[in-house]
UniProtKB/TrEMBL annotation:
Pathway: Amino-acid biosynthesis; L-histidine biosynthesis; L-histidine from 5-phospho-alpha-D-ribose 1-diphosphate: step 1/9. GO terms for cellular component: cytoplasm. Catalyzes the condensation of ATP and 5-phosphoribose 1-diphosphate to form N'-(5'-phosphoribosyl)-ATP (PR-ATP). Has a crucial role in the pathway because the rate of histidine biosynthesis seems to be controlled primarily by regulation of HisG enzymatic activity. Keywords: Amino-acid biosynthesis, ATP-binding, Cytoplasm, Glycosyltransferase, Histidine biosynthesis, Magnesium, Metal-binding, Nucleotide-binding, Transferase. Its EC number is 2.4.2.17. This is ATP phosphoribosyltransferase.
Length: 301
């Protein structure tokens, strides 16, 4: 049986959940025309030879490692857990992480009921912890020379201690609201995660490699644009060098004359660093005005 050999690049993304909107948005920003009809699980991109396969997040590492999909977007946590499980089973677990994406940020943490007196990692010895990530949790236990029992729950893990299923949990945390709502406190962060773009470890075939070579710079351009800002301001000519020093990442600012003003110039630049209010205030103190910080939609070097 030949799988995935129709000359179209196949990308697995989460069907619905924490990563699905951001994954679709990333490809839309890359200029891909995606029309996702209700319940359609394989969507053809209209203007590029790419198909998006909509699946459960937990299936994405396996689909990419087995070559069913060429690329995938998945959380580091899911990827690492799956790879560890496959290694234990003696199954192929190789993949390439192409880049980290800037969404889906969370941490995998151990949490215990608030009333428990936690004295450090040794307090976990002998406990029973509910988790969706037993392999990552066991690795942590081994690294710290402690033993505990794990029981697997695929969702609503935070309810386990209250119903007597476990002493504590190991689950994903972002704002901490779910822990707090369920009377739990975070005691150890065992892994930090973001969404990642992955591929299998074998090189793509000719046509697919060409599609990928077109897509990757667009993805990188979207990521770069997201963290970059276009800054414009008017500055006194005699303070120009001080102004430029203050501007974050100001390698090659453009300096333009202003109509009917010999003492002031316009300065334009792209900043790839965070532009803080404090910097704007300092620029103002130097005599700058009309300071604009604008988002950038696309970038290509
Ligand atoms: N609270 C959160 N904040 C930010 N990112 C999160 C959060 N919870 C999960 N994630 C990230 O999003 C991924 C998908 O989470 P989500 O809960 O949508 O799906 P799931 O239940 O883990 O998986 P599946 O799609 O297989 O049902 C997680 O693996 C993690 O990387
Ligand atoms: O720290 P917080 O911001 O509260 O987020 C943490 C919650 O988010 C995730 O669950 P999700 O809401 O995705 O539900 P699920 O268990 O159905 O996957 C995770 O499993 C936690 O329960
Ligand atoms: Mg979830």
């Amino acid at each position: 049986m030949t799988i995935n050999e129709n000359g179209r690049l196949r990308i697995a993304i989460q069907k619905s959940g924490r990563l699905s909107d951001s994954s679709q948005d990333l490809f839309k920003r890359c200029g891909l025309k995606i029309s996702l009809a209700d319940r359609k699980l394989l969507a053809h991109v209209g203007n590029m030879p790419i198909d998006l396969m909509l699946v459960r997040s937990s299936d994405i590492p396996g689909l990419v490692m087995d070559g069913v999909c060429d690329l995938g977007i998945v959380g580091d946590n899911t990827l690492e857990e799956h790879a560890l499980q496959r290694q234990l089973n003696g199954e192929p677990s190789a993949y390439d992480k192409i880049c980290s994406l800037k969404f889906g940020g969370c941490r995998l943490s151990i949490a215990l009921p608030e009333e428990i007196d936690y004295q450090g990692i040794q307090s976990l010895d002998g406990m029973r912890l509910a988790t969706t990530y037993p392999r990552l949790l066991n690795r942590f236990a081994q690294q710290h020379g402690i033993r505990f029992e794990t029981c697997r729950l695929n969702g609503s893990v935070e309810v386990a201690p209250r119903v007597g299923l476990a002493d504590g949990i190991c689950d994903l945390v972002s704002t901490g609201t779910t822990l707090e709502a369920n009377g739990l406190k975070e005691v150890e962060v065992i892994y930090t995660s973001k969404a990642a773009l992955i591929s299998g470890d074998k090189p793509l075939s000719g046509t697919k490699a060409q599609i990928f070579d077109k897509l990757l710079p667009r993805i990188q351009g979207v990521l770069k644009a997201r963290e970059s800002k276009y800054i414009m301001l008017h500055a006194p000519k005699n303070k120009l060098s001080e102004v430029i020093t203050l501007m974050p990442g100001s390698e090659t600012p453009t300096v333009l004359p202003l109509a009917e003003r010999d003492d002031r110039v316009a300065v334009h630049m792209v900043s790839t660093e965070t532009f803080f209010w404090e910097t704007m205030e300092q620029l103002k103190d130097l005599g700058c005005n009309s300071i604009l910080v604008l988002p950038i939609e696309k970038m290509m070097r």
